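re the bet — no i am not wrong, look at it urself. input seq straight from the record:
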Amino acid sequence: MENETELIRAFNEGKEEAYVRILKKFDKAILFYAGKFIKNQQEKEEIVLDVFAILFKKHSCFTSLLGIKSFLYVATRNACLNSLKKYKRAYKKYGEVIPIPDDLNIEDLGGDPFSGFLLNELKLKVESIVDSLPAECRKIFGMYYYDGKTTTKIANELGISKATVSTQLRIARKKLRPHLLDFLILLLIITIMSFLVN
């Protein structure tokens, strides 16, 4: 398996090799994250194993490693909080203070730091995809979304037609859309869970 696409395809097909690679890729980070909620080693290991078991049962539902990683964090967070005796009080006590990886620039979304984690993950993924775009497409994307310029102004500045600008923007959106969909689905899950525990 040489790349993410092949790994995801194999995982979707239920191949054991893909299961093992996914497990090895995320198990240490997820166990570390569970430790922010649960201090008992055996208990947090059981929670993480259960979360991976759920992931493997849903193997056909994922389209990217970002989707898998985000699911693991959301499911682990919820499982850990559910294991605490007083769920609501634990959520209020820990929900805003539990740290997540130091290399991420957390942004607050509705007081939930994990939503910020997902947003930061999405931004990193978007930046990676944008960087991989052809030079002209990347430049037009930046002028439109980052600089806020209209398609007409972009066309005039670059000496190209508006149709070309629109075509390049469509190419960029097509590459970004699957990853945006993953994030929106997970954000919806978080919103629903937050509503249920309040």
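see?? Confidence is low (pLDDT under 50) at residues 86-113, 194-198. told u. also The chain has two domains: 1-99, 101-198. so pay up
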